[in-house]
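Internal tracking record. Fields below are filled automatically when a chain is submitted to the structure queue. Please do not edit lines marked as system-generated. If the sequence contains nonstandard residues, flag them in the REMARKS field before resubmitting.
Queue: standard
Priority: normal
Entity type: single polypeptide chain
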Amino acid sequence: MCGIVGLFFKDDRFDARLGELLTPMLVAMSDRGPDSAGFAVYGAGIQEHVKVTISAPSGPVAFDGLAERMSRALEAEVTAVVRSNHCVLSMPEVTVERALAWLKDNAPNVHVVGAGTRMEIYKEVGLPEQVVSRFNLAKMTGTHAIGHTRMATESAVTTNGAHPFSTGIDQCLVHNGSLSNHNSLRRKLKHDGLTFDTENDTEVAAAYLTWRMRQGMNLGHALEASLADLDGFYTFVVGSESGFGVLRDPIACKPAVMAETESYVAFGTEYRALVTLPGIEHARVWEPEPAKVYFWERGQ
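SYSTEM-GENERATED OUTPUT FOLLOWS
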């Protein structure tokens, strides 16, 4: 039993309030996931630059001098913004593959959480209220975000095991449910070059979507393909640089509710996660259908 929330703005009317609006949504799902919590925010980016979010158990001390060392190694400017035990490194897009390799070889005490032109991911063990406060979610801005509160069933309660999971640039996923074929699918994806950091079934689902999108599919088509390849009970909420998607399995036993207005689309595992949104009393509210992909992109 986990809690999922998501918020996608169709226009820029509420961009400055993204974190403010997502915070109570996530906290409302605390009793569905008291073990850990996390969120991904799609905020501002710098043209031709990528942001790499990293975490470290030892906290900010692990990031001391890291950006300067990377700048020298990459011969390119790397900047760092530290939020508690997470750090967002910004660098030229052309250096990102070398940067990831450098981190693996030279900073073994940090973990790469995700990378994107606009995406930042923060996640940690603890109650959702503590996690959103720790990273100051309420002050974050952007076009869309997804969040998760976890009650662990498939793997250990750790920072790395918390959601969202990201396995591709600007791609992330949160999940309520359990996949029954994640071990066999993990082997297949490893064979095709995907790598994994945990034994969590959600990481496999995220990697599957990355694999499909590398084949040329957009996020919506990748979700449609997953219906044939993923077994189990699940509700997914996913994000890409410009997109936001929702999918429930064909049985759809996991609860889910959506709301849509002229300005936003919102998702909650339960309706109480949506009640603080502006204009919710006038929104179209419905339960997403089984095996149906819901997908929005900014500007469409």
